[in-house]
Amino acid sequence: MRSIIYYIREFLRPEWLKNFFFAKTAPLVTPPYFKDYPSLTGEECTGCFSCMMICPAPGAIEVLRRKDQWEPEVYPGHCIRCGLCVEACPEGVLASGRILDITRHDGTAFRSWYRLQVDDTLCMRCGNCCVSCPINKQEDPQLGATGTSSSDEVIMRIEGGRVRILHEEKCTGCKTCETHCPNRAIRVARMVEGVHEEVET
Amino acid sequence: MSILQGIKNAVRSRSIHVSYVDVGSCNGCDIEVLACLAPRYDIEQYGIYVHNNPREADVLLVIGSVTPQWVDKLRDIWEKIPEPKVAVAIGNCPISGCVYNRRGTLTDPPAEKYIPIAAQVPGCPPRPTEILNAILSVAPLVFKDYEEKLK
Amino acid sequence: MKKTVDVSIPLGPVHPCWKEPVRIKCETAGERVLRTEVELGYMKKGIERIMRGRPWQEVMFLAERVCGICSVVHNMVFIEAMEEISAITVPPRAAYLRVIANELDRIASHLIANFSYCYTIEHETLAMYILNTRETVLDNLERLTGSRINTAYMIPGGVRFDLLPEDAAAMLADLAKVEEEMKRHVRIFETGPLIALRSRGIGVMSREEAIKAHTVGPTARASGVPDCDLRLRHPTYQALDFEQVTRTEGDNFARIMVRFQEVFQSIDLIRRCIETLPDGPIRGGGFCKAGETSYSGEAPRGELTYYVKTDEYGRVVDIAIRTPSIMNIEACAHSMIKDVTSIADVTSTFISSDPCIACNER
Lengths: 201, 151, 362
Prior knowledge:
Order of helices and strands of chain C: EEEHHHHHEEHHHHHHEEEHHH
Number of helices of chain C: 14
CATH class of chain B: Alpha Beta
Helix content of chain C: 40-55%
Strand order of the largest sheet of chain B: 2-1-3-4-5
GO molecular function, one term (chain B): metal ion binding
Number of strands of chain B: 5
CATH superfamily of chain C: Cytochrome-c3 Hydrogenase, chain B
Cofactor (chain B): [4Fe-4S] cluster
Distance between the termini of chain C: 44 Å
Oligomer: heterotrimer
Low-confidence stretches of chain C: none
Family (chain B): Belongs to the complex I 20 kDa subunit family.
Keywords (chain B): 4Fe-4S, Iron, Iron-sulfur, Metal-binding
Strand content of chain C: 5-15%
CATH topology of chain C: Cytochrome-c3 Hydrogenase, chain B
Mean pLDDT of chain C: 87
Largest sheet of chain B: 5 strands, parallel
Radius of gyration of chain B: 16 Å
Structural class of chain C: alpha+beta
């Protein structure tokens, strides 16, 4: 008999009744600090392609030319939402969650540079790499169809039976030469380093 | 639209049995589907019951990029589900292969080559709020007027 | 001649108890299960082959996605292997932030393992309580790194983002709440009579068998194997006075209790880290050079080893990953499941040894 009274008193407590009738599960909102798909901030994109070079997922971000300006476009089915492109952009065109604010507050950045590597035993002097390189075409409009060039400002040209690299520092890391080489003889290394400049507090 | 069809629409949009199959993923999306079952993002309050028996399912959740062992078995599981049925792809892996779609991989994305997929939830992994939003917006539409569309 | 084995029952790839596809064939004689055989291979994606020839900023994401539950520790062991090859030093603030992220992920992984076990025993109430506590822990991981799973927080030379002071205060408040809830759940688990009926004395593995089968992680620590926690050899953990947790019984109950106690230990470690967090930069710079090394760390399931070989451009030439579940699953199939009473014990013993099949076949 006493146990019945105990149970009735337990279930008639105001907080138990409130939880029983009015409890709701959490609303479906995403917190503001979640790294979502990068969105455009409205800053001017200069078309430097740093975001495309650092992206680890194949086919996730592409910088397209619309009318008279560049604009990066993110494809949600491929993007893994890592936030590297947000941190790598020098202008701050992309934003995701709190990443841009924290990066500016800390003073951290990614530094990247590109190196070329040619395997002499595989190169067969076809010239695909020199012809497809966009910087080559910019430097020497009269580039030969087999990759020979008379100008000394190109990044690489065919000379004496193999590819000779003249100006490695002009490479932007687009890997067009690597995808067009039939032997995978030329390879581009995209090297990235995370740095932290001291911020005065 | 007859009354019987109206009743069927109302019932099918409020009580859905979901079965999930993992065809070779990293387990991240799997754990997010389990987190949907947790009391915080309670998915059972909407009448959606998650288990993994294909024979009593309405919706099949495909998680993961297709590994060589699952290439022949995914179609078998799809055939076992009785009509009406729909497949939803969760995560980036069944859509495009995520980071595994590179030179030297053993997987065979996308999953659309093997079974017909009706909806996709991108993300690596998608947050439980995103999975719930996607399922709740797809649920009333996917079985609407199913018998009339068959004719 | 009378046959001793009646029929071989397959617990198939698609099963309500486990989330990943694995096939276990149980050889039964009547109701008793004499032996089991584990058949793997449903999750092989060839990750190590994809990683060859890629720079570290792409291999880091692939290494994380070997296993989604213990993704932070894969990231940490790979980055620390690269730092060991090129002798890069990490600033002290970054080392402490790494420990915070690692321990938060460890708590989340242990809670998922225990949820899985309680769900297999059909004690769904306790399972849902544990899963709800895990949500608070993942909230804090989101505050620190920006996403719940597959965080990509560590890079060679440091970490990516800093911890703001208001986030640290919120984290401490949440950890106090988590500790209080966990005490209540452990009390329910320890004193429940039906849980004891299905856990105590089932799947016993003695200390000699555990050492002979090379088990690692909480599975080995529950059988009393001494000195098998690799965090004892890590300099940051040594500075925080870390001690390992062991028990001696070696049955299902001991394995789950070891994980609960490690959760309390992790909460303590995070609290000490936040209170003694040093100031300074969070990235030290530094680039990966050529070399090779073999580096081990402590994943939530045991000892994780990365053998990495790089070239002078920072690309990975050769890599081999050895995950802890490889040893634990074989030990489970051979030593723990011998002549058990029914198939229900097979599933609960298998889940109590915390298999991670995605880690197992990359």
